Amino acid sequence: MSALYDFLPVPPKGNDESGSHLYPKLRPYKTVSFDELTEKIASHSGLTKGNILAVMEEIEYWTKQLLSDGYRVQIGNIGTVSASLKADAEVYDKEDIHAQSIRFDKVKMTVSKQFSKQCSGKVLRAPSGKKFRQSSCTYTEEERLALLQSYLESHDYITRAEYGALTGLLKYKAWQDLDKWVKAHLIDIKGRAPHRVYVKRKD
């Protein structure tokens, strides 16, 4: 089986809603569940599902323990897992904050170059029935919120047009999403139309 791809527009910068160039993006068939993955491993390796699950539980346990102790953890040849910290308030002077105000925030994986190079294969242009569509059917509401929150982790703000390009939504539906999440206190809003932007909500 070959991987499928289609093209999406690169999100415009700022409030520029003019057309932009396209970039290729994989069109996943579906998410393979961990149960399905263990079945594939069992049939390929001869290991029992029980053994595979036991090993996975140990990897999860020790990864959690070591991250909590301040280590980075290498997961096979896939990559390295590390944890980040967060201060409960903005810090301007390192002497003004106490250890109680610092806590663990997110865990991320940095994929190794070796593994990235091994993930290669034949790609085909997605047929018409599997192309990305400019509609709310491309992602579920939960997936769209996750995309938005991930985007705001690495960007100071997002515009309505950028959110539409990110999620494949048309103008009105994109605005509905953003307005709903502002009212739910999941994101914040700054400025006024046509210069309105949406930002990460501060805890």
Overall mean pLDDT stands at: 83
Write down the CATH topology of one domain: Arc Repressor Mutant, subunit A
| Class by SSE composition | alpha+beta
Q: What would CATH call the class of one domain?
A: Mainly Alpha
Description:
It contains six helices and eight strands; from the N terminus they run E-E-H-H-E-E-E-H-E-H-H-H-E-E. It has 203 residues and is of the alpha+beta class. Among the domains are: 72-125, no CATH class; 126-200, Winged helix-like DNA-binding domain superfamily/Winged helix DNA-binding domain (Arc Repressor Mutant, subunit A). It has a three-stranded mixed beta sheet, with no helix packed on it. It has a three-stranded antiparallel beta sheet with strand order 3-4-5. Helix 5 packs across helix 6 (171-183).
What's the gist of this structure?
With 203 residues, this protein is α+β, with helices and mostly antiparallel strands. The mean pLDDT is 83.
Chart the SSEs and their pairings.
Elements: E1 3-9, E2 22-26, H1 34-45, H2 49-68, E3 73-75, E4 79-87, E5 102-111, H3 113-118, E6 123-125, H4 141-154, H5 160-167, H6 171-183, E7 187-190, E8 197-200
Parallel strand pairs: 1-6
Antiparallel strand pairs: 1-2, 3-4, 4-5, 7-8
Keywords: DNA-binding
InterPro entries: HU-HIG, IHF-like_DNA-bd_dom_sf
Pfam family, one: HU-HIG
